[in-house]
Specification:
The protein is mainly alpha-helical. The chain contains six helices and no strands. The radius of gyration is 16 Å and the shape is globular. The protein starts with a helix and ends with a helix. Bound molecules: iron/sulfur cluster.
Length: 154
């Protein structure tokens, strides 16, 4: 999976567009999701996310995905689970302080951000702390609910 992680960061530009496309499509399905029940759908979506995001970006299913901000580098792969990294221990060659054979997740996040060629680097946004209660829940369904809440439709 580490190899795929690296591949996804190198291809962050089109993968991020695909990712946003999926989220937009799912948002359109909100009325259906609401009818079925978000809670009931959560486990199914989690399985799909593990098979897609798990394979492609080595997602650790924290349920509060921020890879759109981190160049598709999942911060949960950081041994210190830094949500606003990097820590102060990145090695001179860009490797992780804790796992020397692994590229620092946040160095990869910077590389992924550069791939996306956006005017503002989303990596600069400060991310909230991890909510442990959301670990193992569907990040996609959460995103749909957040979008609908913003639109005052929930
Ligand atoms: S070097 Fe990077 S990946 Fe390793 S613990 Fe620090 S922030 Fe996390």
């Amino acid at each position: 999976m580490y190899r795929m992680r690296r591949w996804s960061v190198r291809n962050a530009r089109w993968l991020k567009s695909l990712y946003h496309g999926i989220e937009k499509t799912l948002t359109l399905c909100h009325p259906l999701f609401k009818r079925i029940g978000y809670r009931r759908l959560d486990k199914t979506f989690l399985v799909v996310e593990k098979l897609t995001k798990g394979v492609l970006i080595d997602s650790q299913s924290c349920g509060q995905c921020i890879v759109g901000f981190t160049g598709l580098s999942c911060p949960m792969n950081c041994p210190k689970t830094m949500r606003n990294g990097p820590c102060g221990g990145v090695r001179a060659d860009g490797k992780c302080e804790v796992i020397p054979e692994m590229d620092c997740v946040w160095v990869m996040a910077w590389e992924g951000n550069q791939q996306t060629e956006e005017k503002e680097y989303p990596i600069q946004f400060v991310q909230p702390a991890l909510d442990n209660q959301l670990i193992g829940t569907s990040a996609w369904l959460r995103e749909v609910r957040i979008r609908k809440a913003v639109d005052h439709e929930i």
